Amino acid sequence: MKQENNKEHKFGMVIDLDKCTGCGSCMVSCMSENNVPFKEDESNKKDSITWMRVYKLTNGKSFPDTETAYLPRPCMHCAGKGGHGHSPCVSVCPATATEYGHDTGIVSQIYTRCFGCRYCMGACPYHARYFNWWDPKWPEGMENYLSPNVSPRMRGVVEKCSFCYHRYQAARDKAYHEGRNDIEENEFQTACTTACPAGAIVFGDLNNPAHKVHQIVKPDPHPDKWNRHVVGKSRNPKVFRLLERLGTNPKIYYLSEREWIRRKGDNYLDGEWDKIKNHHGSSSHG
Amino acid sequence: MDSALIPEGAKRCSFPKFAIGIVIVGAVLLWGVFAMGLIWWKGLNQTNMNDYYGFALWIWADLAVIAVGGGAFFTGLLRYIFNIDELKNIINFAVIIGFICYSSALLILAIDIGQPLRGWFIFWHANVHSMLTEVAFCLSAYFAVLTIEFIPNILENRQANKVPFFRHLAHNMHGIMAVFAATGAFLSFFHQGSLGGVAGVLFGRPFAYREGLLIWPWTFFLFTWSAAAFGPCFTLLITKITETITGKKLVKDNVVNLLAKISGWMITIYIIAKIIDTIYWATVTAPSLGFNISHFYTNNGFYGYWILITEILVCGLVPGIILIMKSTRENPTLRLIAFILGVIGICLNRWVMVLQVMAVPVMSFDTWALYFPSWQEIATTILPVAYGIILISVTYRYLPVFPQEAELNAVEPAAETE
Amino acid sequence: MFPFNFEWAWDVGHAIFFGGFWYAISIMGAGMAYCILKAALDTMNDN
């Protein structure tokens, strides 16, 4: 039996923004799981590494109508225009140091091949990619807490969320040893998913109708009829993706009952949102 | 002291005066080298770049020097392929300027990468679909072409030329220079273009993203054309500066005016294309992605509409018109103003296509990001300028760079008496 | 860069990109070889 799974996965996530309390557990668990280095002073967020970053959104209204929401943002693992795997970052990397896994839908980063040109960072509109400006340093004794399954990164390379790929590898190995062809839904869950106390994050295979993520997202098997670059659009009217109109085709979906939050997912010209807000997804226009 | 090396019949300042000049500029160079050492030793934390500004001052400097260095390939193309004979009087200098620009670009790239020892990965593990890969390959190869074009001039040094092998080598290289020039033009077309493509393919960045032809966004063609258009402006500007510093006329006005006229037409055609591109982007491309043009130019103190107007009209259309009209072109002051505006314009375009791309927020809840370089970044960007001044000084002093120099600066014969 | 590199693929993209690159390098190499050899011959003929 080949260890590679025969079936093509498309791992993705849906985050319920109405459940997210902005507690930051996902960020902490991610840093801890993936040996993400930190600085002594983390006040400058523009050069600190947060594979998972929680953004604060507000509806822009003054008291007493003010509403706040939190939006966790991991790497979007974009499938690129048309979903062919040419994600914004993968297509630009000059040294093939980041690749799109067609068997998993995961965008990987090969740290030992990255030479730190940072073109991928410029290409990513989500700021999901981070550069190691410093050598990674942990307070004395803390090295003992590092995960042995994830290699720490060196100064001068780019890193980002891997969808806890090492967990996928471990799950696959386990299935292989047990003579199974494929992994179960609960065998591969990312650290942020398992850490979220509100259960706001649902992770799984978007290609598998038995998986919860698929059932919530209901990805459209056909390209968007208004924008041929957009594929896998959600057929759930409460679900949206960030910057869907650009054709990056992220595999992170967001869920919210609140219209103002869904509107924040993309950019709209005056009047556009009102025309399409009741249609599913947000990439349609014109 | 070094008179044996100075071209025959040419007048140069005394060696001590020359040496003092080199030492002063050399001090600036050393400052840059020190900053470069710091960066290589301590890493890119020595810069003010951050995760929003992965590309910053250096990438701008790279794009700018390559754009203004485009004078070398374009003048070479005109001289050797289109056989415009007058340009033989400026081609050596154009090549030297190009050589300085491209070697500087390669040096800056070597500083700019996070893992300099892995720089060769871009060749070894090449992703042929990345515009940056195309840049690296064509830029390096074209630098080899420039070196080849520079060699004959070096071998024409008075002492080197006494060696028969060198004399023959220089002669033979001149003989087939058209082949090298054609290769240079081919490589330049692709690397200048792919530098434009670097920004143009970023479909996640609506400010930069452009549609295009096949795999090439319109910025690919705009960058190539603009480098060919504005490159000669830089060549002529540096020529004028060299003439001012040396106090000598080095290139005849008819040569300057000819190249300026070609440059003027190239600039004007480019600006028309650029205006069309801008209008299409502002009214079709960006709106289709949900962005009004005002999104890119307001809400911050720096990137206002002024930058668009300055780049396209003041530093694009104006120099173009000055250089195509005979009366203004042949006015030395206006001509010089046009060169200066042109160089500013092309550098501003490269700034916008690097820095503003990084500054504009894309996610609706993101914010503008502004940046100011650290002294290490500034020093390493000034380093190539100091290096360029030194190389021009040395080549001007010891090599027959300007074929018309002797004729234009002949020692006046004493007035004959009846 | 070379067919024995891990990333190499025998596809149109690689053929065009590296075809152009090696073509340019070959012309430069051949041109320089010609100039150097001819210069050596010319020098010998001088003597």
In short:
The complex is a heterotrimer of chains A (286), B (418) and C (47). Chain A has 286 residues and is of the alpha+beta class. Chain A is 19% helix and 14% strand.
Q: Can you walk through the features of this model?
A:
- The complex is a heterotrimer of chains A (286), B (418) and C (47).
- Chain A is α+β, with helices and mostly antiparallel strands and 286 residues long.
- Chain A has one domain: Alpha-Beta Plaits (2-Layer Sandwich).
- Chain A is built from 8 helices and 10 strands.
- Chain A has helices spanning 25-33, 88-92, 119-123, 165-177, 191-195, 212-217, 259-264, 272-276; strands at residues 11-16, 53-58, 68-73, 98-100, 107-109, 130-131, 158-159, 201-205, 239-240, 252-255.
- In chain A, strands 8-1-10-9 form a 4-stranded mixed sheet. In chain A, strands 2-3 form a two-stranded antiparallel ribbon.
- The longest helix of chain A is centred in the middle third of the chain and has 13 residues, at 165-177.
- Chain A is globular, with a radius of gyration of 19 Å.
- In chain A, 50% of the residues are buried.
- Chain B is mainly alpha-helical and 418 residues long.
- In chain B, 70% of the residues lie in helices and 1% in strands.
- In chain B, strand 1 and strand 2 (216-217) form a beta hairpin.
- Chain B is globular and about 70 Å long.
- The mean pLDDT of chain B is 94.
- The N and C termini of chain C lie far apart (44 Å).
- The model of chain C has no long low-confidence stretch (mean pLDDT 90).
- At the A-B interface, helix 2, helix 3 and strand 6 of A face helix 5 and helix 6 of B.
